[in-house]
Amino acid sequence: MLATATTGGLVARASQNPDDSAFVQVVSGISKLPSNGKEFRPILLQSVLAQQGTFGACNDVHVRATQGDPSLYSIRFRTLIPPGQIELERQILVKVVPIRAANSLVLLVVGTTRLRYPNQKEALQRVIDSFEAVPAP
Predict the structure, then answer these.
(1) What is the pTM of this model?
(2) In whole angstroms, how far apart are CA 53 and each of 25, 27, 44, 115?
(3) What are phi and psi for residue 78, nearest 5 degrees?
(4) Which of 15, 56, 81, 123 is the most exposed place for a label (fewest CB within 10 A)?
(5) Based on the number of CB atoms within 10 Å of its own CB, is 58 exposed (0-12), middle (13-18) or buried (19 or more)?
(6) What is the pLDDT, as a whole number, of residue 103?
(7) Angle at CA of residue 121, ends 49 and 134, nearest 5°
(8) For the chain, first and last CA: distance in Å?
(9) How far apart are alpha carbons 102 and 29 in whole angstroms?
């Protein structure tokens, strides 16, 4: 389905709480905007939520398209964090921007733990709203 996925080393984490994070990931080999959560889930599982991805092995993944913005998805999942393999539930927002000229999707991923999400949702949404990706000339 997709050829490659990379974050290019661009990751930002809050210094006060490392559970809050934001990063951009480029997914090559696909340029069509997914039309729903069911269509977007396999892309996520092969990129952002891949076993060797930023969050490690993820399970119980729920992907939901948001109302009003067809390029924004809300994702909830569980992951294990070392050293004690503690299970942690996370909530992320993913903004999808297709770059057809490069046959790629640019994904802005922002999120935190499920417990912190209600208090951080407004700040995460501001980050999402400020994001723009355009093809280079």
Answers:
(1) 0.85
(2) 11, 13, 10, 22
(3) -115, 145
(4) 15
(5) buried
(6) 86
(7) 60
(8) 27
(9) 9
Q: What is the Cα–Cα distance from 34 to 108, expressed in whole angstroms?
A: 15
For CA atoms 76, 127, 68, 95, give the dihedral sign.
negative
The three-state secondary structure class of 62 is strand
Q: How far apart are CA 84 and CA 86, in angstroms?
A: 5
pLDDT higher at 71 or 135: 71
Strand 86-99, strand 104-113: pairing: antiparallel
Cα separation, 111 vs 123, whole angstroms: 10
- Rounded CA separation 20/92 (Å): 10
Angle at 33 between CA 134 and CA 5, to 5 degrees: 70
Contact indicator for 98, 34 with CB cutoff of 8 Å:
no
Confidence (pLDDT) at 109: 92
User: Which tokens is 127 given?
Assistant: 């980050």
